[in-house]
Amino acid sequence: MFDKRTWIKLPRNVVVGHDVLGELGEAVGELSLSGPALIVTSPTPDRLAGDRVRAQFDDPETVSIEEARFDTIEEVVEVARATDAGFLVGLGGGKPIDVAKTASDRLGVGFVSVPTAASHDGIVSGRSSIPEGDTRHSVAADPPLAVVADTELIAEAPWELTTAGCADIISNYTAVKDWRLAQRLKNVEYSEYAGALSEMTAEMLVDNADSIKKDLEESAWIVVKALVSSGVAMSIAGSSRPASGAEHLVSHQLDRIAPGRALHGHQVGVASIVTEYLHSGEDGQWRAIRDALASIDAPTTADGLEVTDEEFLEALTTAHTIRDRYTILGNGISEAAAREAGRVTGVI
Ligand SMILES: [Zn+2]
Question: Does the predicted model carry a pTM greater than 0.85?
């Protein structure tokens, strides 16, 4: 009996470009959502764009958050209930977007993403990353109904946020390799379409690396488009597999071992140099990944992430324990092997 079935949840309106913030009201109006908007933001994006966003809705409420934590999500859920919010608008970098996405899912109301930085693929995807204690949870949620990414605004964000977004995309190479490996060894379901889209996204970004430069708005355009197609690949797959493999596990461990030192995208970028080496050896593509990261000013060493060699090695040798996701790390790599991989690739 043929019993396959699949749900693909995608954003309906994706608006990307110069000065498109003013089209937010229209992009949301087309969705036929009812009830007032609750804008979830944090102090800096609120100052930069809050008024322009509020002006496009009737009687919007605003909640400004400082941190992305589970109790912050609870707080937003309570405000949304008290104000009868019909939908939530996440305005900001990672934190307000992750919190608004998760709170919307909890409330069963629509979520609209208005990123002011392109630092990771969460601006489009159906996943949120929420820190709790000394760890981070990757929480599943519906992807945004609409994404309005104003490249003029994003180009004004600190440059390292953009390079982190680029590095998050470059790491798709190794994520897809891990996914294929898991299919071969563990019979994990693999989508050719999602895998190819994710790889192509990383390739396009690397091919355009010369146009990714500080103070060049086109950089924001290239990165946001890549983050959108990476998010679509995850929607098609129905999992984060196309964009998250062993390099993400290592990054999650770094969050625990050395919290707050480096950005998510930078961590996964450095880790993917090593996991590419583990996949294909000394003559593999790890140099290409390293050079692509270097060309956009993203870190390529543990030192560049402001973690010690020992901290990086601890993350690498323990990453397999944190999630039931089969990758090139298998049941764990030995400390000697980790040290050798770090040494050959120059990461440590
Ligand atoms: Zn990521």
Answer: yes
Centre of ligand 1 to C-alpha 244, Å, is 6
Say how many Å lie between the CA of residue 175 and the centre of ligand 1. Answer: 10
Task: State pLDDT tens for residues 99-144.
Answer: 999 999 999 999 999 999 999 888 888 877 777 666 667 778 899 9
Counting Cβ atoms within 10 Å, is residue 66 exposed (0-12), middle (13-18) or buried (19+)?
exposed
110-115 β-sheet, strand order: 13-17, 146-150, 110-115, 87-92, 37-41, 61-64
Contacts of 280 (CB under 8 A, 6+ apart): 286
- Separation between Cα atoms, residue 284 and residue 170, nearest integer Å: 15
Q: Count the neighbouring beta carbons within 10 Å of the beta carbon of residue 109.
A: 18
Over residues 167-214, the pLDDT tens digits come to 999 999 999 999 999 999 999 999 999 999 999 999 999 899 888 999
- CA 325 to centroid of ligand 1, rounded, Å: 15
CA of 245 to the centre of ligand 1 (A): 9
Mean pLDDT calculated for residue range 43-55:
97
In the numeric block, the tokens 């470059």 are attached to 170
Four-CA torsion 17, 20, 26, 31, nearest 10 degrees: 40
C-alpha of residue 343 to centroid of ligand 1, in Å: 24
- The dihedrals phi and psi of 38, each to the nearest 5 degrees, come to -115, 120
| Cα–ligand 1 centroid distance for 166 (angstroms) | 10
- How far is ligand 1, taken at its centre, from the CA of residue 167, in Å? 9
Structure tokens at 17: 């470009």
